[in-house]
Design brief:
Blueprint (H helix, E strand, L loop, with lengths): L3 E5 L5 H14 L11 H9 L6 E7 L2 E10 L9 E8 L8 H15 L4 E7 L3 H9 L3 E12 L2 E11 L14
Parallel strand pairs: 4-5
Antiparallel strand pairs: 1-2, 2-3, 3-4, 5-7, 6-7
């Protein structure tokens, strides 16, 4: 069994990270983009992930095998304590525990940095992702029907969430609200 090492992503990881994502775009309905991301788009996205947001990679034998991120859920201030996570595993490394290792670190980081809730969007029918999230205490909170169109068919998206703690986000003063 190969060792999985999780660490914060670096700019030097972006080509591998982007290839994992673009492979998912090209070959599945699990990413809703219909056009692959360019290197510049990925750099811009990465630059926006300053604390408390984060990007992690999973390495197997020195190769990026997958990645996960914590991003803003919505731009409105009242959502500051809610993060949206994303998780993608390279085709050669699926089923080897990479997703499990990444999700564990994302939850730990979200708790450490003061998020109250993590939200995820899972394409309906992605049984592996649903099972992974259930195993980590996420619950399905709703289904958005036919919100995506890819590969000639309408796709549903299930929302999942995990309440992490009673924390308020760092620097947030809710007095008077």
């Amino acid at each position: 069994m190969e060792t999985i090492r999780i660490r914060r992503a670096r700019e030097t990881d972006l080509a591998e990270l982007n290839e994992i994502y673009n492979e998912t775009v090209r070959n599945s309905v699990f990413a809703f983009d219909v056009h692959q991301k360019t290197a510049e788009e990925r750099r811009t996205w990465f630059a926006a992930h300053v604390p408390p947001y984060a990007v992690f990679v999973a390495e197997v034998n020195g190769t990026v095998a997958g990645w996960a991120s914590i991003s803003p859920w919505a731009p409105h201030g009242a959502y500051a304590a809610t993060g949206e996570h994303s998780l993608f595993v390279g085709a050669r490394h699926r089923g080897a525990g990479v997703g499990k290792a990444l999700l564990a670190v994302v939850i730990e980081e979200a708790e450490r940095t003061g998020f109250h809730v993590l939200i995820g969007r899972i394409t309906a029918g992605n049984a592996i992702s649903h099972a992974l999230h259930r195993a980590f205490g996420f619950e399905e909170i709703g289904t958005m029907r036919e919100v995506g169109w890819k590969f000639g068919r309408w796709l549903d998206v299930c929302l999942v969430q995990r309440i992490l703690s009673a924390n308020k986000p760092p620097g947030t003063d809710m007095a008077g609200v």
